[in-house]
Write a structure and sequence with these properties.
Length: 248
């Protein structure tokens, strides 16, 4: 896509004109279209759509955001109807999905029909209180680790810049949004804050908190009942939004 690697996950009997534009996480230092193809393919199968997995260069801001924006422009250039397209992203992929939408909105590009966020990393100030209150539940994403990842991604940019931390952005005009977050993860607090900010901006938003689950637990799809339930909810939420285009 515009010179970037990509991967189609096409379930049997998928409706060809329904696309889930999928942005993987990994803290900006790991993850790929291959590590996440199972996660997004499970969702595509449940939703009856194709998933397009987007690769981006794992460099400091703004390179990843530029790459995902390029990929979205490419998709539109193929004649895919944005009203039959949904975005999904996990962790930093959620950040990039939101930030790409904000760029599209501000540059006059058509927006997709829906946005799904899995444990989105939306606040690179790494200051939410759940980094401490959920610390004992966490296995990896301690405040020190996330602060290091944030520093590497920012490379001198302000952590409160809207295109870096969507929590500080104007979210008005964004499409319906569904957030899933684990009750035990350290990024829980910023998801809760983001939901409230989106709601105040007039966005149709839903948030489901899954008790005792950790960051991006949906990666266990096919092996974990909690993960399978999360995928089922995502699919049920997004399917009607891809089926019936809404005039803008």
């Amino acid at each position: 896509m515009g010179g970037l690697p990509a991967l189609w996950a096409v379930p049997k009997e998928a409706v060809e004109d329904r696309v889930i534009f999928s942005v993987h996480g990994g803290g900006g230092v790991s993850g790929s279209i291959y590590t996440h193809r199972k996660l997004f393919a499970h969702l595509a199968k449940a939703a009856g759509a194709r998933a397009l997995l987007v690769e981006y260069r794992q460099q400091s801001y703004p390179v990843p955001l530029d790459d995902v924006t390029t990929a979205y422009r490419w998709l539109l250039d193929q004649g895919v109807d944005p009203r039959r397209t949904a975005f999904i992203g996990d962790s930093i992929g959620g950040n990039l999905a939101i930030s790409t939408m904000l760029r599209a909105r501000d540059s006059g590009l058509p927006l997709p029909a829906a946005l799904m966020l899995i444990s989105p990393w939306v606040d690179l100030t790494v200051s939410n209180e759940t980094f401490e209150s959920n610390r004992e539940n966490e296995e990896f994403f301690y405040k020190e680790v996330v602060s290091y990842l944030a520093s590497a991604y920012l490379a001198g940019a302000s952590p409160t810049e809207a295109s870096v931390s969507p929590l500080y952005a104007d979210l008005s005009g964004l499409p319906p949004m569904y957030i899933q977050v684990g009750g035990h993860e350290t990024l829980l607090g910023e998801s809760l804050e983001f939901e409230q900010k989106a709601r105040k901006a007039g966005v149709d938003v839903r948030l489901d908190e899954f008790p005792e689950q950790l960051h991006t637990f949906q990666m266990g799809a096919g092996n974990s009942p909690e993960s399978d339930e999360a995928i089922r909810r995502l699919a049920e939420w997004v399917r009607p939004r891809l089926t019936t285009p809404v005039a803008r």
